[in-house]
Specification:
5 helices, globular, Thiol Ester Dehydrase, Chain A, 34% strand, 14% helix, ten-stranded antiparallel beta sheet, single chain, alpha+beta
């Protein structure tokens, strides 16, 4: 059965969820904050009781918040094979700085489905509203490729050309991931055994469990926050990019950042291969 195009526009019921200081600390540690911080510049993200330091949340933490549960709108796609789904791209929009504790009401919707020939591209958007003031807090945009579900002759979607400047990056930041990074990051909610069970990873053709793509996303976001936003989450407006290769826990990540006119572009490498590409950051 082909993918159900009537799922476009389908929205979930509103769902409330909360987080607190401890959740923020766990996320920060999960994306490497504090691992190599001799000056204490990340104490505001990794502690809640340091003298003269006010705890803050990393902006990219919103990728693990606001899930609507129960499969949400994706349950309307029909009889698709989720084992062939690939998380292709991820974007976040911060409508206001992420607090260290809050309750939000989230709704998810399938904003579009594109025909990529060998795959269907499903755009899933989740917007979380702060129940304290009924104002939007953040939006997560996930682009999911369902292999084998394309080819119906539909709209292929936008094909924006992305080019990096033909020069060296303006900033290069390197982070060493831990051999147990995936085991730590999974405590934020993603318990997919691909990231923890060697036998399950082997079924996918991997020699060992791989790192969560959203963990690489968080490491990259930290680099952008420090290099471009002067550690101030209020300046971190949005971040987007494409996952291009898996990362093995223990690999070193190198984030290369270009200031290209009014655009901030970036890519992340591991062992000389690009693992996160076509990155764009906007600031306030």
């Amino acid at each position: 059965m082909p993918i159900n195009l009537d799922a476009i526009g389908t929205e979930s019921d509103p769902h409330e969820s909360s987080w607190d200081s401890k959740d923020c600390l766990l996320y920060s540690l999960g994306v490497g904050a504090g691992a190599d911080d001799p000056t204490g510049s990340e104490l505001e993200f990794t502690t809640e009781n340091t003298k003269d330091v006010i705890q803050k949340a990393l902006p990219t933490m919103c990728v693990v918040l606001g899930a609507t549960g129960g499969g949400g709108p994706l349950s309307h796609l029909g009889n698709v094979d989720y084992s062939k789904m690939v998380h292709g791209e991820q974007g976040v929009i911060l409508h206001k700085p992420l607090p260290t504790s809050a309750t939000v009401r989230s709704t998810s919707k399938i904003s579009n489905i594109y025909d990529k020939g060998k795959a269907a591209l499903v755009i899933l958007e989740t917007t979380a509203t702060d129940i304290a003031d009924n104002q939007p807090m953040f939006t997560n945009i996930s682009k999911l490729f369902f292999r084998g579900e394309g080819g119906w002759g539909g709209d292929r979607g936008p094909t924006d050309k992305f080019e990096f400047p033909e020069r060296g990056p303006d900033h290069t930041i390197s982070y060493q991931t831990r051999s147990d990074q995936a085991l730590l990051y999974r405590l934020n909610g993603d318990r997919n055994p691909l990231h923890s069970d060697p036998s399950f990873a082997a079924l996918g053709g991997f020699p060992k469990p791989i790192l969560h793509g959203l963990c690489t996303y968080g490491f990259t976001g930290r680099a952008l926050l420090h290099a471009i936003c002067d550690n101030d989450p209020r300046r971190f407006r949005s971040m987007e990019g494409r996952f291009s290769s898996p990362v093995m826990p223990g690999e070193k990540l190198e984030i290369r950042i270009w200031i290209d006119g009014e655009q901030i572009k970036f890519k992340t490498l591991a062992s000389d291969r690009v693992v996160f590409d076509n990155g764009l950051l906007t600031t306030k």
